[in-house]
Amino acid sequence: MPDVVTQRQLNRTTLERQFLLERTGRDPVDVVHHLVGLQAQEPPDPYLAMWSRLEAFDPHGFGARLTDRTFVRIVVMRGTIHLVTGDDCRFLRPLVQPVLDRELRIHQEYKADLAAMDLEPVLAFARPLLAETPLPGSKLRAAIAERFPDLNAGAAAYACRNHLALVQVPPRGVWGQTLQVTNTPAES
Question: Above pLDDT 70, what percent of the chain?
């Protein structure tokens, strides 16, 4: 008869793998990579997560990893903002595209507009615009409205969020600093 893992063993194993039973001395980059990212919908979330896991956690040093692009904040798992390594971003973002496509198809406010919209011209317009100058959502919507006056600019901007691999630029997410959500393509 095969060994059966108890609920408690499964629980303890999961917590240990997540570095939540005892803190680790590993490098923060290694920990973020090991965890395949950290929930980062709110800027402090990854800091609290790392403080809970690392023996010696330096929030300023961790934040500097966003500035040097070792870490990025991007829509990935479950269609929400996560902090991942730059390398993991390049690998993970294409894998979640089906989830983001589905999100556009079922979005209560935008699904009708998006179903009728030819997104290729919008994406071809937005990608270089955001690469040249990272923009907050309000300015992206305004630029889309100006260029495509017959489209629902909110729906088009939301489609850009889901079709372009957009990262939030620092200082958004950097410890002790602030910036409204401002995006640029990950390849930039």
Answer: 99
